[in-house]
Specification:
Layout: E1 3-5, E2 12-14, H1 23-32, H2 35-51, H3 59-72
Antiparallel strand pairs: 1-2
Helix pairs in contact: 2-3
Length: 93
C-alpha cells in the first residue's frame, strides 16, 4: 500500500484500502485521504444516516450524504451547506 498526505489530518499515512467511492470523487479520496480518516468518516456516516434517517435509496439522501462527506474531507461542497451536528452521547432522559 502507498502512503498519502491526508487533506483532512495533514499526516502521511496509508492510503484507503479498496475503492472508497465511485467516479472522480473516489479517485480524489484515494489520492488525498488516509485510511484512518476514511474509517472516521465511515463511523460518522453511520451516525448521520441513523440520526437524520437518511434513505440511501433516494437520490436526495445520497446527495445529502455525499455533501456531508465533502464537508468532512474539506473538499468542495455546494455553497451554503454546513456540516450536520451529531451527538456523540445520547440526550439524558
Amino acid at each position: 500500500m502507498a502512503d498519502v498526505t491526508c487533506i483532512r489530518c495533514g499526516q502521511t499515512r496509508e492510503e484507503i484500502e479498496g475503492t472508497p467511492y465511485g467516479g472522480k470523487i473516489g479517485q480524489t479520496l484515494k489520492e488525498k485521504v488516509c485510511n484512518v480518516c476514511w474509517k472516521e468518516w465511515y463511523e460518522q456516516s453511520i451516525k448521520i444516516i441513523n440520526e437524520y434517517r437518511v434513505t440511501l435509496r433516494d437520490q436526495k439522501g445520497r446527495d445529502f450524504l455525499a455533501t456531508q462527506m465533502k464537508i468532512f474531507f474539506k473538499l468542495e461542497a455546494p455553497s451554503g451547506e454546513t456540516a450536520v451536528q451529531i451527538e456523540d452521547t445520547p440526550p439524558a432522559k
